[in-house]
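Hi there,

I know you've been waiting on this one. I reran it after we fixed the sequence typo, so this is the corrected version. Both the input and the resulting structure follow.
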Amino acid sequence: MKTLYDVQKLLKNFNIYVYIGKRLYDIEVMKIELGKLYDNGLLEKDDYLQAELILRREHRLESEKEKERNK
C-alpha cells in the first residue's frame, strides 16, 4: 500500500466509499473510518499503520496546496 488510491481500495473491501467532494474532507473521513475498522479488529496493525501514514501525508500535501491556492 503506497497511495491514497490503495487506501480507497482497502476501504472499498469493507464497502466503505468516501466522497464528500473536497479532497481534504475525504481524507479526514477516511481516517475516521480506518480507525473504526482497526478498533473493531477488522484490520491488521501493519495495514492500519501504513494506511494512516499515507492519509497523514496526503492530508499534509493537500493542506499545503490549499494554502498556495489561497495566497
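Quick highlight: The mean pLDDT is 96.

Best,
R. S.
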